[in-house]
């Protein structure tokens, strides 16, 4: 989640919500309070989403570390070559941006 995009989207959403709340209720004070409540709910949802993404990334990394550890154990048995490439093979690989 790209933070600046989220903040801009949240601001636009709150402005639209504030205008709609004002048009529905006819009270500026009520629209402000409802918009503040909406802002807190949106921020709580954003926080929960970030926590979920961090937790998921941690689980993926832990699963990768477990498989890397298994691969390292296997590779130590077959000469220390983890990916099947020799150490001098990397400079000989073609590089391109396309």
Automatic annotation (TrEMBL):
Species of provenance: Neorhizobium galegae (Rhizobium galegae)
Compositional bias segments (type: Low complexity): 63-74
Chain segments carrying region Disordered: 62-98
Top-level taxonomy: Bacteria, Pseudomonadati, Pseudomonadota, Alphaproteobacteria, Hyphomicrobiales
This protein's UniProt keywords: Membrane, Transmembrane, Transmembrane helix
Source organism, top-level taxon: Bacteria
Residue ranges with Basic and acidic residues bias: 75-86
UniProt keyword annotation of NADP present: no
Cited InterPro entries: SyrA (IPR024239)
Name this protein carries in UniProt: Exopolysaccharide production repressor exox
Transmembrane segment boundaries: 7-25, 31-54
């Amino acid at each position: 989640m790209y933070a600046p995009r989220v903040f801009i989207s949240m601001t636009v959403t709150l402005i639209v919500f504030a205008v709609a709340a004002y048009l529905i209720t006819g009270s500026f004070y009520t629209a402000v309070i409802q918009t503040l409540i909406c802002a807190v709910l949106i921020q709580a949802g954003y926080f929960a989403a970030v926590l979920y993404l961090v937790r998921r990334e941690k689980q993926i990394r832990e699963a990768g570390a477990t498989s890397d550890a298994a691969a390292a154990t296997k590779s130590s048995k077959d000469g220390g070559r983890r990916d099947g490439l020799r150490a001098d093979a990397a400079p000989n690989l073609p590089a391109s941006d396309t």
